[in-house]
């Protein structure tokens, strides 16, 4: 087959629409109150991710006869005497689980910021600036690698915050019963728990989450703080925590977050965009190796997305393993394997059936969405609700999933920019796609890599559904072939690479003490 280079662009109108400001639209779906089948009271002995050698300070609780504690109890009674319908809705919303709700909120923030900026008048593109997050374009641009990193840091910090909280909860000097246990006049407006209430586990989650989110989404500070205040009010109104329970937990969560903040600030993600010299070198190196270099098909050409993301420090894998896991080169142009794959893409382009269209639409995860890692968070949350897990197990399981997704992003982007391989639409004119063409090299598929990692972790966590999860991952990867933006080899190799990355999370899960 004779191939031809095609230079095309996305429609400017569509790009401009995607660059407009996007508000947060919370789902607020109806979910049952969290009623863990197992409280995981030994979670204080589980292995934390970053804080195993850290020392934290938590004030001792005051005696139940102290004026401050009596005032705390009276505050709860005052709330419960005159609950408004709005306050009852707050209780209902947050009772589904702190980790669950914050994961939903994080997905909404990612979706809000997943908007590539429109070009300047001179044909260049502006970059989000953390130092000035409210200027256009809003910081950050939550593309898939950035989103994977955000999900990982938030989930991992939540897990460590809860492990550290449980160490204090079951320390004899700190153990305190919930207000609805200590005082018969305090109602339990959520399912009762046998967990000690000091320090508050919800507060630890909120404290850690807010600190991480403010780093990741600084322009949303007011919104994040509003959600923290809302969750605090829920714990007081429901009779589950006193104000001092909350304050102790929130302080501990913030201390844990500081450990993760230090890592995030030094993980080299801030330099991932590179510069023109970096972009030009990728093209020069590809030509020197006798390969057709990838080029942006947008007009004006958009800089490649995060070409230096491979330099980000992985969170589970040793840094050296990023290269070790890198797959072999894609099929050489003109080879029989390459021609077979290209013929298939062209055939898909000419004959889209309805099932393929459905699959492409379901797994599109493009601009303005939660991204592929967020899609797998949605799938995980829907599954986890069925199992009645404790907050700490929710956090641990989401941390395993999202750390695998972050490392999958690093490995995938390393492969993409090492080979700098063009997409089918660049090589042959007239290919009709069912989805937008991402602005980065073809090999390997990001969707397939994220999905292979996610399915591997979810299959470990919910083994009875392992086969189903892997089938979903395969479908996600193949959706990119059906859409005309990837070769089959991009998808199959991406899936296999994602499985390898997911295994690092599984191996950690097998040794973290939670099983």
From TrEMBL:
Matching Pfam families: PAP2
Stored PROSITE patterns: PROKAR_LIPOPROTEIN
Boundaries of every Phosphatidic acid phosphatase type 2/haloperoxidase domain copy: 398-506
Transmembrane segments: none
SMART domains: acidPPc (SM00014)
Origin superkingdom: Bacteria
Name of the molecule in the record: PA-phosphatase
Organism annotation: Mucilaginibacter pedocola
């Amino acid at each position: 087959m004779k191939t031809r280079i095609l230079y095309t662009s996305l429609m400017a109108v569509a790009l401009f629409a995607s660059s407009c400001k996007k508000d947060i639209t919370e789902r607020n779906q109806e979910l049952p109150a969290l009623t863990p089948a197992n409280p995981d009271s030994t979670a204080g002995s589980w292995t934390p991710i970053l804080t195993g050698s850290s020392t934290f300070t938590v004030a001792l609780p005051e005696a139940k006869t102290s004026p401050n504690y009596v005032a705390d109890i009276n505050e709860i009674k005052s709330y419960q005497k005159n609950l408004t319908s709005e306050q009852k809705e707050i209780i209902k919303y947050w009772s589904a689980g702190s980790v669950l709700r914050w994961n939903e909120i994080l997905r909404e923030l990612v979706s809000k910021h997943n908007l590539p900026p429109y070009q300047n008048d001179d044909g260049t593109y502006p970059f989000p600036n953390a130092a000035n997050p409210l200027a256009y374009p809003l910081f950050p641009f939550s593309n898939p690698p950035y989103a994977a990193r955000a999900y990982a840091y938030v989930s991992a910090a939540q897990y460590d915050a809860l492990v550290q909280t449980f160490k204090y909860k079951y320390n004899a000097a700190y153990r305190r019963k919930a207000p609805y246990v200590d005082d018969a006049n305090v109602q339990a407006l959520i399912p009762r728990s046998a967990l000690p209430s000091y320090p508050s586990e919800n507060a630890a989650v909120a404290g850690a989450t807010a600190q991480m989110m403010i780093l990741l989404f600084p322009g949303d500070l007011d919104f994040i703080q509003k959600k923290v205040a809302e969750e605090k009010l829920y714990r007081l109104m429901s009779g589950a925590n006193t104000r001092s329970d909350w304050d102790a937990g929130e302080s501990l969560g913030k201390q844990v977050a500081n450990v993760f903040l230090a890592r995030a600030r030094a993980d080299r993600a801030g330099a991932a965009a590179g510069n023109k010299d970096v972009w030009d070198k990728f093209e020069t190196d590809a030509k020197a190796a006798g390969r057709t270099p990838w080029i942006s098909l947008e007009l004006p050409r958009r800089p490649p997305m995060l070409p230096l993301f491979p330099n980000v420090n992985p969170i589970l894998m040793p840094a050296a393993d990023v290269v070790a896991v890198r797959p072999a080169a894609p099929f050489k142009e003109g080879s029989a394997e390459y021609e077979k794959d290209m013929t298939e893409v062209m055939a898909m382009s000419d004959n889209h059936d309805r099932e393929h269209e459905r699959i492409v639409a379901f797994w599109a995860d493009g601009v303005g969405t939660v991204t592929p890692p967020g899609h797998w968070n949605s799938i995980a949350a829907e599954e986890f609700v069925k199992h009645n897990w404790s907050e700490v197990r929710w956090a641990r399981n989401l941390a395993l999933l999202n750390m695998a997704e972050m490392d999958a992003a690093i490995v995938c982007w390393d492969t993409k920019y090492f080979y700098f391989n063009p997409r089918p639409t660049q090589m042959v004119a007239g290919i009709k796609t069912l989805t937008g063409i991402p602005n980065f090299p073809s090999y390997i598929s990001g969707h397939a890599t994220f999905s292979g990692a996610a399915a591997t972790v979810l299959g470990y966590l919910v083994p009875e559904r392992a086969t189903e999860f892997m089938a979903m991952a395969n479908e996600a990867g193949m959706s990119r072939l059906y859409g005309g933006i990837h070769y089959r080899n991009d998808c199959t190799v991406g899936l296999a690479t994602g499985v390898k990355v997911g295994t690092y999370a599984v191996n950690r899960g097998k040794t973290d003490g939670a099983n």
